[in-house]
Automatic annotation (TrEMBL):
NCBIfam families: PRK10738.1
Recorded coiled-coil stretches: none
Domain of life: Bacteria
Protein name listed in UniProt: OsmC family protein
InterPro entries: KH_dom-like_a/b, OsmC/Ohr_fam, OsmC/Ohrsf
The organism of origin for this protein: Marinobacter panjinensis
One Pfam family it belongs to: OsmC
Biased composition (Basic and acidic residues): 28-37
UniProt-annotated stretches for the region Disordered: 18-37
Amino acid sequence: MKATIDWTGDASFRATSGSGHAIQMDGPPDHGGKDLGPRPMEMMLMGLGGCSSFDVMSILQKSRQDVTACHAELEAERADAVPAVFTRIHLHFVVTGRKLKENLVKRAVSLSAEKYCSASIMLEKAGVEITHSHEIREAP
């Protein structure tokens, strides 16, 4: 896996993945940025959410669950001192579908957290406390 980061002026950088996808990262105005994109630490948090959501959906699809939507809400706390690392992250999944089985949704979230989500497991090994919760909503 590869990626490149190119400075685009002020506190702004363009990140390009090995697969050719790009995103603009930028700092806040009080740090020389123009607020043109997410901050690098926000990218890490979004990466964690994407990694875990990918796992949850993959597991639920393999379990033949009729999922119509999967929404993840992430909330992180950071240390007050530099480096302002993540100290706690909570992921809350809202899974919508038809006749979803509680035990299978719970299992998908647990398997992602404990076995499959590389980002989550890596951050936990670095000392970040990561918690998960979920709710199920019936699709109309």
